[in-house]
């Protein structure tokens, strides 16, 4: 929404941005309790976020609001599983090869040789999800995966090349769960349980059994598989609100745009398939206010859009909006904890796998990310985020704090991570706040253009956005706002279109693979080829 507003004020439109929250900005809103800053979750800025990085340069935000590219750790309850490197520090190799070369050695794998008969038997058992019996109870390892498990990840490549070759194929994958995709492709159960499932719980905020296989494939491709550097990320060196949104709001305000918080949209008035005005409720007074409009962009999440459709007599008659009622959203919980002591933390960003049932978790050491907490003598400040947090939302603030401390202590092994050492903490419950890319959801997701000539939708959840950014993505949301602004310029015949930077093009071997997959589909060859034989016995 802010992306659309920014471009439209640049094109001399009279822009009004309405937000139900008094502190406009959706999940990017933040606040301070005395000296303690808080925000709704950490938001990584990935290597392919070219348009957001370009916006920062255009606004001349100084000092640079971003950290350096950061490394990360991936923990299981019994120890460290792997590390996430900065790929730009390594020589660039063809995609897939580079990721394998630089990450496989970082996994804490077992030492079984891949070619002895015992290893082969174990590989078949792992495909089938059978538990292995320990020969010596005195021998134990924190490793959950071996080399065979890691290489089974490459079995996803054929699906990744073919899933979006045409609309029919995409819909087929959308109706399949990611869990079923992994099983059919040949991913082993240990890799799924120990790595892929936790990774998706923090990447798409839901377990693979609830995620569209198509959405998972396009997300994995965008964030990790298309190019070696794609998985690199940085962070804001303060809250997103203070480092990015405040300068952007000041820019919009300086150009004559109006940002009005505490105004909840309840209806749009439509005449002859065109919106003529928007009705909003002033949450302070309860008054209904009409805002005349030549064009409207809905830049809200699924839950907010559903509330508007429910309240609106006009939108509830339009099919593209009633279909939105079939979509779902995800609960998140965020906690920030200030400790009295400064602790040594190996990596600033950390993923927790299987610490919570059907719930993703991360923690961040903000002293290594935010300038405010960097000075010596400042106690450690941790941000702990939970995704698909249905079971955590009902807990008290103190129970959530204790859960965060317990998880971090298991990872870091420092006794100073204790309630007694907590100086302050804050908790945010973001209920139904994030897009759920659920199985079969694509058919109900809206496109940006609607049946009203001057009414548009933006957000990471719109479909058929002609851009390489996918999944839960600040970049995708921002771009969709620019595209909506371009549509308004076109409809109203005023202004120039915003320049949008696409993702890096496919590497040659990937482009060839996609071409072969597409030709196989168009010629009917894909329909007569035998199914993946691994599927016959990969029964986990």
Protein traits:
single chain, globular, seven-stranded mixed sheet, alpha+beta
Walk me through this protein's architecture:
Helix 1 (2-10) packs parallel to helix 11, helix 1 packs parallel to helix 15 (474-492) and helix 8 packs across helix 10. It is globular and about 65 Å long. It is built from 17 helices and 18 strands. Strand 10 and strand 11 form a beta hairpin. It is an alpha+beta fold and 540 residues long. The protein has a 7-stranded mixed beta sheet, sandwiched between helices. The protein has a 3-stranded antiparallel beta sheet with strand order 9-10-11.
Helix and strand arrangement:
Elements (H helix, E strand, L loop, with lengths): L1 H9 L5 E4 L10 E4 L2 E4 L5 E2 L3 H10 L12 E5 L2 E6 L12 H7 L13 H11 L19 H5 L5 H6 L4 H8 L3 H8 L3 H15 L9 H13 L7 E2 L5 H15 L3 E4 L1 E9 L2 E9 L5 E5 L3 E3 L3 H10 L7 H4 L6 E11 L9 E8 L2 E7 L15 E7 L9 H16 L9 E14 L19 E3 L16 H19 L15 H16 L1 H4 L12
Parallel strand pairs: 1-8, 5-14, 12-18
Antiparallel strand pairs: 2-3, 4-7, 5-6, 9-10, 10-11, 13-16, 13-17, 14-15, 15-16
Helix pairs in contact: 1-11, 1-15, 8-10
Helix proportion of residues, in percent?
25-40%
**Form type:** globular
- Individual helix count: 17
Measured distance between first and last alpha carbons:
43 Å
Spatial extent as radius of gyration: 24 Å
Determine the mean pLDDT.
91
**Which residues form runs of ≥5 with pLDDT under 50?**
112-117, 133-142
Structural class: alpha+beta
Compute the number of strand runs: 18
**Proportion of residues in β-strands:** 15-25%
Strand arrangement within the widest β-sheet reads: 6-5-14-15-16-13-17
- Describe the main β-sheet briefly: 7 strands, mixed
